[in-house]
Amino acid sequence: MKRKKRFKKTSHNIPCKDHFGNSYPSIKEMCKVYSINPETYSRRIKVYKMSVAEALTRPVKHNGGQQIRDHKGILYKSRTRMCEHYGIDRKVFEYRVSHGWNLEEALTTPSKSNKPAGE
User: Which of 28, 51, 57, 113 has the fewest beta carbons closer than 10 A?
Assistant: First the structure.
């Protein structure tokens, strides 16, 4: 007796819709249309709390990042470079911004690991 192959049902294998209402058999297929890695899409939705539209259409950094200005108007080559300048971990910065912090607060508020001992 032959056994049927069963596919593990992951979030990448369930039907979904994009921000235009187009239906796809899976997240993987939808991401293929938008030329984005399904893991990148999932991280953007779950971790960075992006909308479906932003998660699918925001350019993926292949060239070291997009230029960005800080709250003072200073231009940086990438978010990573800007965070390095302010001595803040980029993941901490991304978390803060995705949770409603403004740019200045996200960059200038010391993280718990950056605070001097005794504070």
Answer: 113
Angle at alpha carbon of residue 66, lines to 64 and 70, rounded to 5°: 120
Domain extent at residue 27: 12-57
The packing angle between helices 79-86 and 90-98, to 10°, is 110
Query: In the chain, how many domains are there?
Result: 2
Same domain, 76 and 95: yes
pLDDT tens per residue, range 51-86: 999 999 998 866 556 789 999 999 998 888 999 999
Cα–Cα distance, 85 to 69 (Å, whole number): 12
100 strand-pairing partners: none
Please give the Cα distance from 118 to 35 (Å, whole number): 49
Q: Looking at the structure, tell me whether residues 49 and 79 fall in a common domain.
A: no
